[in-house]
Specification:
Pfam family, one: ACT
Pathway: Purine metabolism; IMP biosynthesis via de novo pathway; formate from 10-formyl-5,6,7,8-tetrahydrofolate: step 1/1
Structural class: alpha/beta
Domain ACT: 4-78
Order of helices and strands: EHEEHEEHEHEHEHEHEEHEE
Number of helices: 8
Keywords: Hydrolase, One-carbon metabolism, Purine biosynthesis
Function: Catalyzes the hydrolysis of 10-formyltetrahydrofolate (formyl-FH4) to formate and tetrahydrofolate (FH4).
Strand content: 25-35%
Distance between the termini: 20 Å
Length: 277
């Protein structure tokens, strides 16, 4: 079985030599390796796939002795992640993820879907998954979020995915899932905010549309970016056609970002990500 070693720490001379020396000492073979130094922050990142039998605690101890005291060291076998999906009314991102999950393309187990509307319940149940309808009407934001958190607590997910969940989350909610809450939105932000962004974009004659997937933090739509993509459009396309094209980009970008996160390719450092393809 292949194992992944994920390390990040302040950079200093000889880190790769020290790490590979410890791996050699433990009789491990390096199958694949990636490294990166962020020059501005002088910070080192390394993702290493190794094969062989070893004592995980002893390996971790030896790496801790070899590396700077503040080093973050993680060993994983990259098992499928447990996730809960949250959505509102739009089906495109949810259906894309449910189909990919059905065919084993996500390295994840979808445990349930939560929504503040009933619209997507039948779709979810076609995949034999629990659907939790938690309406927000006539509830304070705090009460509604407490209900959502209570359902999430039943599943203890590794990640929560906002598959076009159109409710602003409070910092208190986000704090429960730091760097484990992933969102997708159109790439017009911050230019076209609020309702009908594609109508606004159409009125301005934009020439590209796209999507951004990111981790959620306390600042709305400003968390560390995981993946983005854009496609060209022109004056012949209506606002409706632009919106359809935008939905296609959103669902692909979200699925791609999740695959990278679930395959342990993504390091979060400050408000940025370092990604090993």
């Amino acid at each position: 079985m292949a194992h992944l070693l994920l390390i990040h720490c302040p950079d200093e001379p000889g880190l790769v030599y020290k790490i590979t020396g410890v791996l050699f000492k433990h009789g491990l073979n390096i199958v694949r390796n990636g490294e990166f130094v962020e020059r501005d922050g002088n910070h080192f990142f390394m993702r290493t796939e190794v094969a062989g039998e070893f004592d995980a605690e002893a390996l971790q101890d030896d790496l801790g002795l070899a590396l700077p005291p503040s080093a973050v060291i993680r060993l994983t076998t990259n098992q499928p992640k447990n996730i809960v999906l949250m959505a509102t009314k739009e089906h495109h991102c949810l259906s894309e993820l449910l189909v990919r999950h059905e065919f084993g393309e996500l390295n994840a187990r979808v445990l349930a879907v939560i929504s503040n509307y009933e619209v997507l319940g039948d779709l979810t149940r076609k995949f034999n998954l629990p659907f939790h309808y938690l309406p927000h009407a006539d509830r304070s934001r705090e009460t509604h979020e407490a209900e959502v958190l209570a359902v999430l607590a039943q599943y203890q997910p590794d990640f929560v995915v906002l598959a076009k969940y159109m409710r602003i989350l409070t910092p208190e909610f986000v704090a429960h899932y730091s760097n484990r809450l992933i969102n997708i939105h159109h790439s017009f932000l911050p230019a076209f905010v609020g309702a009908s962004p594609y109508a606004q974009a159409y009125a301005r004659g934009v020439k590209i549309i796209g999507a951004t997937a990111h981790f959620v933090n306390e600042q709305l739509d400003q968390g560390p970016i995981i993946a983005q993509n854009v496609i060209p459009i022109d004056h012949t396309q209506s606002a409706h056609e632009m919106a359809q094209a935008g939905r296609d980009v959103e669902k692909i970008v979200l699925a791609r970002s999740l695959k990278m996160v679930f395959d342990e390719q993504v390091f979060v450092h400050g408000n940025k990500t370092v990604i090993f393809d």
